[in-house]
Amino acid sequence: MHEKHSYNLCPVCGYDCKVSSNYMHWGWPDTTIFDGLLIITCDDCGFSFLENEISYSQLNEFYEREYRKVGSPFYWDYGSTFEIPRSLPTRSTAQIYLATIFTEFLPGDIFLDIGPGPGDSLFSAGHLLNKPKLIAIEPNQDSASYYDRNFGAKSIASLSDMSASGFKAKIILLSHSLEHFRHSDLTILFKSINEVLDVRGVLVIEVPNVDFRVHKHLRFPDTPHTIFFSKDSICRLLIKSGYDIKHIQVLGNSYPYSHLPFVLNSPTVEIKNNISYRYALKKLFTKLHMLNYFLALRKFFKSMKYTRQGRIKMDLALFNDFINDSNFDTIRVAVTLRSDRVI
Q: How far apart are CA 145 and CA 190, in angstroms?
């Protein structure tokens, strides 16, 4: 069942919220917990959240049984062996490199991923960082065995368990995981992260850029996300949670997409007119831009030959996704603990 609340005020900025949208459910036809949901949007900061939250137990059951099962859009076989890529995964490489700009990662320091999925970040960290201790927040035993077998990573069931162990991470990655939390869980989540982040450490967060004030009719389906961020709202949330923002960028694919989600049965005339030859050309140039990006990465990694490095010495210009365009679909931010919030 959904947990009924009367949320008139934005959980991030306290603004009176009056704008709502229907939740677009797809991908898990046998799952009903996302049916009939209403998304509330703050017209001030752009944060969006569910009017009636899905219960904690139902959401956990979904991720345990449905999220990665055979036939799911995000199916993954945790009994498998990680296939070594020809070059390091580009997203996690850029995220890790961003973190090293703001901290010195020493041998034995901890790299922590909260929800590593197939493990690209653990693979990248193992090759880019200098003798890292790799840790994943992962309660599932099959997933934990997969991370240990493929990357030598230790899995810990929760952030509270990690805090109790006394571990402090120099780099924490929260990549496309934050949007899966409930908004009522955000305060305790960031309090728990603060407890395990080294005083000299960096937290890197990446989330979809879904500002309902702008992207309401252009976004992909919502399942299974429960909160949605604009650039402004994630900045406000992180400052409120005790962080200094060191870097923020909006990157990824450009809105509007060349095709709309199938759950939108009939796009408005305005949307149809926006998907014109000008956007087709922009998409083409974006592809060419990314081609140069991958060529540069391939050249770099070929010269590196997967040797383990200490502090990474590279020019930001190498990564062409270190750009800032409010009409792209991903937000990436690097933060450190504010001095008055160091635990």
A: 27
